[in-house]
Design brief:
This protein is mostly helical. Helix content is 75%, strand content 2%. It has ten helices and two strands, in the order ααααααββαααα. The chain has helices spanning 3-26, 29-43, 45-52, 61-71, 76-88, 100-103, 113-137, 143-153, 155-185, 197-218, and strands spanning 105-106, 109-110. The chain has a two-stranded antiparallel ribbon with strand order 1-2. Helix 1 packs antiparallel against helix 2 (29-43), helix 5 (76-88) packs antiparallel against helix 7 (113-137) and helix 9 (155-185) runs antiparallel to helix 10 (197-218). The protein is globular. The two termini are 34 Å apart.
């Protein structure tokens, strides 16, 4: 077993441990279950690709990207680690999203800005690296091939669009979950999901900083 695979499995085990701790502490599945499913999909994606695409030549550009970026890439774990670590820091014993840890501020940002910005950086790196592989193998003269070429030439803009879409989905999901949990408990101290308009603004800014850093490092 490769060390990168072992690390992914250990990281998934830690995520499952955190999810179980949050389940037992809050007795609500609205927060821990989506986070467990999301991290399971990201951490175990290489194993899924190995099942779907065993050792054989790729038949198209999409398969080529999955093989080079996900299946055979020992560095894939670096793309998904920040997301997993961000959830690990929600463990009831050392939760940085509520309580005393959440009150700590650095340059106006809470501690949660660190996993947010690093996750955005890793996501941007995943998108731009995938576009680079796609550009190398793309010889499709159809509209799809031309679209891949355009995305590759505008990797920064395309990755920003992907980040913006996922940020909207994530933040809206947190808003919905927060409201559902508040409707059930009525006390912010008794719920798992913490959300506020100010926190959302800071999350968006942290994501933009992570994206900008990824683009600068790429250049």
């Amino acid at each position: 077993m490769k060390r990168s695979d072992l690390f992914r499995y250990l990281l998934w085990g830690a995520v499952a441990w955190t999810a179980d701790a949050n389940r037992r502490h809050y007795h609500m599945q609205t927060t821990w279950l989506p986070h467990l499913l999301t991290n399971t999909a990201s951490l175990l994606l290489p194993d899924a690709v190995r099942l779907l695409l065993p050792r054989k030549r790729a038949r198209n550009e999409v398969e080529e990207v999955l093989i080079k970026v996900v299946r055979d890439n020992d560095d894939y774990v670096a793309y998904v680690t920040p997301l997993a670590v961000g959830y690990l820091l929600s463990h009831p014993r050392f939760n940085i999203y509520k309580g005393a840890w959440a009150d700590l501020k650095v340059a106006g940002f809470g501690l949660d800005a660190i996993p947010h910005s690093l996750t955005a950086l890793a996501l941007t790196a995943l998108v731009t690296d995938s576009l680079e592989v796609a550009a190398d193998v793309n010889d499709d003269p159809t509209w799809f091939g031309r679209l891949l070429d355009w995305c590759g030439r505008h990797a920064g803009l395309f990755s920003l669009g992907v980040l913006a879409a996922l940020t909207f989905i994530w933040e809206y999901g947190e808003y919905r979950i927060h409201n559902l949990e508040m409707a059930e408990r009525g006390d912010v101290a008794q719920i798992n999901m913490q959300w506020s308009a100010k926190d959302t603004q800071q999350d968006i800014l942290a994501n933009l900083l992570g994206w900008a850093l990824a683009i600068l490092l790429r250049r």
